[in-house]
User: Fold this.
Amino acid sequence: MKILIEIHALQNFAPSNLNRDDTGAPKDAFFGGTRRARISSQCLKRAVRQHFKALVLDGKLDGNDIGARTKRLLETIAPLLVAQGHSEEESREMVKLALAAVKLTVKEDDKTQYLLFLGHREIQAIAQVIHEKWDAITAPEEGAEGKKSGKAKKDVAKQADPELKKALDAVFDGGTAMDIALFGRMLADMPDKNQNAACQVAHALSTHTVEREFDYYTAVDDLKPEDTAGADMIGTVEFNSACFYRYAVVDWAKLVENLQQDGTLAAKALRAFLEGFVVAEPTGKQNSFAAHNPPEFVAVSVRRDGAPRNLANAFEAPVRSRDGLTAVSAQRLVEKAQQLQAAYGGEGSTFVLNLAQVKVDGFGEGVDSLQALLDKALAAVQG
Assistant:
């Protein structure tokens, strides 16, 4: 039976610019015929991944259970080889040759061609393979000059020691990194090592129509003569204030599969993700706005019918209210969920953290804290 874990959150942010476009303006989108504030799914996932790092620092997660997205693989692996007794110069060269054996090129600036999303266990395993296969790693024969980069990479890989390639190929398995398991990855030169995400994250949309606003600011030189009038710098910053509907869904079976059938680690990853989705915030211009406003309505549904339901259409007609937006939005969300349930049916359990204090009769079981919400959701998944 397919188990899906959905999370719905309503979060009303005070004036802010959490996620900017290329002009510096808050991101937005047309939905239901009107302009809405938007926070991209990439931004939300980045915030969750940063939350994972904070959990590592707090000792709640093992640092080896997460990954890193980087071009600086050479700078990361070389010190691991130096620690095993190899010289720094030789270590750097061996890393370049070993990565070339699997078609991963380190450029002249000592960075890979593109960002690689690797688990920390994978990175450590690469270093160990290089150490163990040290004598088998040799420079390729001359002759790649003048060839296109793709052809040159293939030639270098063909000349590499087969045992080295086999050992390295076995390393790229996701390293049981929970963020890779959740969000997936693409390795352009090693497509068989791609990992399909166990989690889908929607762009957050405001439940109501939003207009852009402008903050006109000035700055004064603290050391200028007192008899000098006027500002020394002026400018504008765009911002908005919005109640966002946020949604994500996790495929439990896929998460366990991506974590190499480790159900205990999958449960830890799911709990960390759900917690991060609720408490992690985008950091855009927070030093200027300090819009630290936790969600006031969070619902987690554990569905056993394989039919995810994004409830954004509850807000296709934009919410309008002079008595606040969160409670009205929450009521709309509950009503839409009940309508879809009546029309399409399905099995599952829903747990609700309801600070907006709206009526949720028939929608789910109320809880009084985030930790209780997580406990109930994990029990429903594992039960």
Observations:
- The chain has a mean pLDDT of 92.
- Residues 79 and 96 are 14 Å apart (CA to CA).
- The longest strand covers residues 233-251.
- Residues 326-344 form the longest helix (19 residues).
